[in-house]
């Protein structure tokens, strides 16, 4: 109970702040007013400054290739942050605010294909893996949000998707080799890597007392996927 | 229903301000839809079909969110997360930047709103045909298209709010000027 109160107070403050924002929007053009806090936070994050630079500008009439280039840089930045999480942890919590869905979708498709190819029931395995991934990601996201996590829906999807990357590698290796020891090693390493990359993100977005509740289903999902890699023949 | 959409940009390309963008805006929507409908006839490889439709849907989502919205109707939305939670940011055309082509705009909004409706209808059909694995594609399509509908609806509301505010501001300034003169 005592923990709830500060949470509620914080929430109502947020709501007030939201309304203040809304009230002030019509008088001044949005792009002129709302940007400064966003930029300050973006540049403080580990994100490449190039993507932050564009944000305050009016991007409505930029050339198409510039849009493409920005997204490619964004995907590269996200991947680097998630897959090589060697930087400081608070940089990472501010990262991935520039979400994209290309990475997650690609990794989900690659994993589903790797696990399905060569099995007797390709169709079933493929849709099972892809369905588990997408439904699992949605449920995990709601779980984190319901636990009071400060994380956006697409941001969480993006994060979970990018963190499958090590398991993708494990699936590819497992498809290539039949050596049991090599498989065990690569799968365990991939699982540890995925968890190591994703747990800080999820854990830091909820209050410390609820961390386990947010992290446990995530590990369950990754363990399930890693186990599928392992048992695939 | 799908045939009605691509016909317009092909028939009267000159009337469009950004015919290429309008074409791709509609093309990916129709292509994903047609591939979904017809893939069963040409290929029984579920994985290939699935990947083809999903990639087309991703192209469509990206094009609509990042390219066609800003070029066809002068709107763009960003959803970013800050310490206060999810934050929407909207870009709209500023005064005198450029005007919006009526055909571009009609093409954009019609196809934007029709797409989720078509997919929901397809989803109902798929449920009755008990093809659960194909339903997964439909769910992805509905989620992606609805995200764009939601974003752009919010964005256009924001734009009209700004216009109204500008109009009232101008009126107020005119009034105060008039009163000062009296």
UniProtKB/TrEMBL annotation, chain A:
<feature type="transmembrane region" description="Helical">
    <location>
        <begin position="213"/>
        <end position="231"/>
    </location>
</feature>
<dbReference type="GO" id="GO:0006888">
    <property type="term" value="P:endoplasmic reticulum to Golgi vesicle-mediated transport"/>
</dbReference>
<feature type="region of interest" description="Disordered">
    <location>
        <begin position="26"/>
        <end position="55"/>
    </location>
</feature>
<keyword id="KW-0472">Membrane</keyword>
<dbReference type="Pfam" id="PF04893">
    <property type="entry name" value="Yip1"/>
</dbReference>
<feature type="transmembrane region" description="Helical">
    <location>
        <begin position="101"/>
        <end position="118"/>
    </location>
</feature>
<keyword id="KW-1133">Transmembrane helix</keyword>
<dbReference type="GO" id="GO:0005802">
    <property type="term" value="C:trans-Golgi network"/>
</dbReference>
<feature type="domain" description="Yip1">
    <location>
        <begin position="97"/>
        <end position="228"/>
    </location>
</feature>
<feature type="compositionally biased region" description="Polar residues">
    <location>
        <begin position="30"/>
        <end position="53"/>
    </location>
</feature>
<dbReference type="InterPro" id="IPR045231">
    <property type="entry name" value="Yip1/4-like"/>
</dbReference>
<keyword id="KW-0812">Transmembrane</keyword>
<protein>
    <recommendedName>
        <fullName>Protein YIP</fullName>
    </recommendedName>
</protein>
<feature type="transmembrane region" description="Helical">
    <location>
        <begin position="125"/>
        <end position="147"/>
    </location>
</feature>
<dbReference type="InterPro" id="IPR006977">
    <property type="entry name" value="Yip1_dom"/>
</dbReference>
<comment type="similarity">
    <text>Belongs to the YIP1 family.</text>
</comment>
<feature type="transmembrane region" description="Helical">
    <location>
        <begin position="181"/>
        <end position="201"/>
    </location>
</feature>
<dbReference type="GO" id="GO:0000139">
    <property type="term" value="C:Golgi membrane"/>
</dbReference>
<feature type="transmembrane region" description="Helical">
    <location>
        <begin position="153"/>
        <end position="174"/>
    </location>
</feature>
From TrEMBL, chain B:
<comment type="similarity">
    <text>Belongs to the TVP23 family.</text>
</comment>
<keyword id="KW-0812">Transmembrane</keyword>
<dbReference type="GO" id="GO:0009306">
    <property type="term" value="P:protein secretion"/>
</dbReference>
<feature type="transmembrane region" description="Helical">
    <location>
        <begin position="33"/>
        <end position="59"/>
    </location>
</feature>
<feature type="transmembrane region" description="Helical">
    <location>
        <begin position="134"/>
        <end position="153"/>
    </location>
</feature>
<dbReference type="GO" id="GO:0000139">
    <property type="term" value="C:Golgi membrane"/>
</dbReference>
<dbReference type="Pfam" id="PF05832">
    <property type="entry name" value="DUF846"/>
</dbReference>
<protein>
    <recommendedName>
        <fullName>Golgi apparatus membrane protein TVP23</fullName>
    </recommendedName>
</protein>
<keyword id="KW-0472">Membrane</keyword>
<dbReference type="GO" id="GO:0016192">
    <property type="term" value="P:vesicle-mediated transport"/>
</dbReference>
<comment type="function">
    <text>Golgi membrane protein involved in vesicular trafficking.</text>
</comment>
<keyword id="KW-1133">Transmembrane helix</keyword>
<dbReference type="InterPro" id="IPR008564">
    <property type="entry name" value="TVP23-like"/>
</dbReference>
<feature type="transmembrane region" description="Helical">
    <location>
        <begin position="107"/>
        <end position="128"/>
    </location>
</feature>
<keyword id="KW-0333">Golgi apparatus</keyword>
